[in-house]
Amino acid sequence: MKDEVFEYYRSAGSIAAGILQEGAQQIRVGASYLEIVESIEARVTEEGAALAFPLNLSLNEDAAHDTASYGDARVFARGDVAKLDLGVQVEGYIADTATTVDLGNNSLLVDASREALEAAISAIHPGATAGDLGRAIQHEIENRGYRPISNLTGHGLDRYVLHRSPTIPNIGITGGVVLEEGMVFAIEPFATTGSGHVSEKKRVEIYSQLMVKPVRIPSARTIMEKIRDRHGLPFSRRWLLEKKLDLALPALVRSNILHAYPVLSDVPGSLVSQHEHTVIVTGDGCIVTTR
């Protein structure tokens, strides 16, 4: 890895770590969901970086892909388990990090994903496999009486690329990608009181561009122009403030121009915790960019 690229990753990670900690401290009973999301997203710009994806703030059984909608009236309630997932990019090089804020009495659940993340980080070295990391994650979560979410994974990162090889499972598997020096990826264990499997809700607030293709609907053309500088990275419908979104966005998804990210949720009434760091594999272990 070139020194310049390494510094971009380190810079993005340092910014993300600081803002994630600040943002977590804002989450409290009665606070506005929308105001916190917009405040955290604004801090990224203030630090001279850009968002790699809209801030994910997912509550309770919702594990991922929720963010504020325009005019969102939600407030945090006592007992909420809030997953705060932040992506920052500097010149396209991404830091992806997450933490969980417990507004109830769920400290053991929160510890499960946190300690699973630390166990996976400790297992990283060239020659280790993705399955080794998944095994470490699964052990820590199950040892505390919870289930890892088997159909959510960590993922490789590249310039303007949020998901690529290697895939880092949250359960033990045989083999998997062999880790090599210079690999960059995010590890994100999810611990749940529910089924250990997420499914898609109808709610969709996040999209990304898959291809460039002529479109006929005027509002769709306006959307494509507004997201051009995302370089394919995800965006929020809240950022667009366009009329006729309910017509244009589904049309772009049907045309395979956009990809939709529905909220991913375990069974109703369950609780999910998440922690995440971005790492760069070194000759004898790894560097965590998001500490």
Could you tell me the mean pLDDT?
A: 96
Number of domains: 2
Largest sheet: 5 strands, antiparallel
CATH architecture of the largest domain: Alpha-Beta Complex
CATH top level label of the largest domain: Alpha Beta
Shape estimate: globular
Summing up helix and strand content along with how strands pair, one would put the structural category as: alpha+beta
Helical residues, percent: 25-40%
Question: How many beta-strand runs?
Answer: 15
Radius of gyration over alpha carbons? 18 Å
Strand ordering within the main sheet: 7-6-8-14-15
Low-confidence stretches: none
CATH homologous superfamily grouping of the largest domain? Creatinase/methionine aminopeptidase superfamily
Please give the alpha-carbon distance between the first and last residues: 20 Å
What is the ordering of alpha helices and beta strands? HHEEEEHHEEEEEEHEHEEEE
Beta-strand share of residues: 25-35%
The CATH topology of the largest domain corresponds to: Creatine Amidinohydrolase
How would you explain this protein's 3D organization?
This protein has six helices and 15 strands. The mean pLDDT is 96. A hairpin with a 2-residue loop joins strand 3 (81-90) and strand 4 (93-102). The protein is globular, with a radius of gyration of 18 Å. It is an alpha+beta fold. The protein has a five-stranded antiparallel β-sheet with strand order 7-6-8-14-15. It starts with a helix and ends with a strand. Helix content is 30%, strand content 31%. The longest helix has 24 residues, at 3-26. The protein folds into two domains: 3-198 and 268-288, Alpha-Beta Complex (Creatine Amidinohydrolase); 206-263, Arc Repressor Mutant, subunit A, CATH 1.10.10.10. It has helices at residues 3-26, 33-46, 107-122, 130-142, 218-226, 245-254, and strands at 50-59, 62-64, 81-90, 93-102, 147-148, 154-158, 161-168, 184-187, 190-192, 199-209, 235-236, 258-265, 272-274, 277-282, 285-288. Helix 1 packs antiparallel against helix 2 (33-46) and helix 3 packs antiparallel against helix 4.
